[in-house]
Amino acid sequence: MKAICGSRAFLYTAVAAVTVLLLFMGISYAPSPQTLRSSIKSMTKPEPPKDRPTVPTYISASNTRNGEKLAYVSWLSSTVAGKDNEDLDKDLYFIGTRILVWQLLHYYKTKTKNIDVVIITTPDVSQSRIDRLRKDGAIVKPIEFVHGHNDSWLQPEQARWNGIMSKLRAWQMTEYSRILMLDGDMILQSNLDGIFDDPGAQILKTKQNIEHPSDENDLPDEYLLASMGEVESPKHDYPPDWDHGLKKPGKFCAGFFMLKPSDKIFDYYTGLLDIPGRFNPDFMEQNLLNYAHRWEGPMPWREIAYTWNIRSVNENDFNMGVVSIHEKWWENPWSGSKRVKDFFMSIRWQMEGFYQARDMLSAQGHEP
């Protein structure tokens, strides 16, 4: 059975390069299932580079995932592309979300084991996008926007962030014990599952000896917010730290973080929306979360290893094996690395080839 599953995975990726080439040449080609399957007969699973350093994954003595229901969650809105724009091949954030789903569910180097992959979508996301993501294998959960009763003071730095508070809906997904929240513009180099065993990614007790403002809603007895500081530029050490490459000590990036769902903490967050000036609204949910989980407060966020994710990646990060990269795959990396850019595009087209091959088999009445 393992051999069959492996053959199918290679079947999809084997036709990626041919599919893309034919697309660029404008040639329509529909090979038979037998032709597709025969293309993998001489292929063997490629080995990773011998000189690639091992990335620590902090596997604990006892499996902390035992008995837990875990999820990878990403948020998708159409505030950039527009709800009525049905040219899905040009919706870059949507393509990025598809890439993330493919990496987590299907790509042999990065796919998860027994962890759900969920995309939460705002009301302005078209049904065609929802259908495509479900066909790709994701669990899609449509959500409502999040607003306070008195939140007119919330004016983000960019208008396209107006609906971004809806990311807070992830805390209402109480069917999961822990969730890793990822922005859609993530590219993985290796498997992320070990992050749930990182010492910083464990549930904590709320500190009862720190004063809590009386105009805010009650806090939960326990919580989890684990993340990492954002790098200031591509010029940083690997892994970066507060003395060598990170900016704004005590501030984390809300593009990659671990959380514990809780209705009570969701109510606490939404209550903050009704207190004008309680946090700087320029970066909306990121600044709300940084206030709620400030290091001097009762629910301080914890750091996880900086080998899990880096923004503004440079070639050294890439060579050292950073597990995931927070960059817009369609743009040149800030570092200017052609090698990193080529890797992004390779992943993008492998995803396209995989799904086109699978769709082709399905259209011909064959189980992918």
TrEMBL record:
SUPFAM superfamilies for this protein: Nucleotide-diphospho-sugar transferases
InterPro entries hit by this protein: GNT1/Glycosyltrans_8, Nucleotide-diphossugar_trans
Keywords: Membrane, Transferase, Transmembrane, Transmembrane helix
GO molecular function: transferase activity
Residue ranges crossing the lipid bilayer per the database entry: 9-30
Name of the protein: Glycosyltransferase family 8 protein
Organism: Amniculicola lignicola CBS 123094
Taxonomic lineage of the native organism: Eukaryota, Fungi, Dikarya, Ascomycota, Pezizomycotina
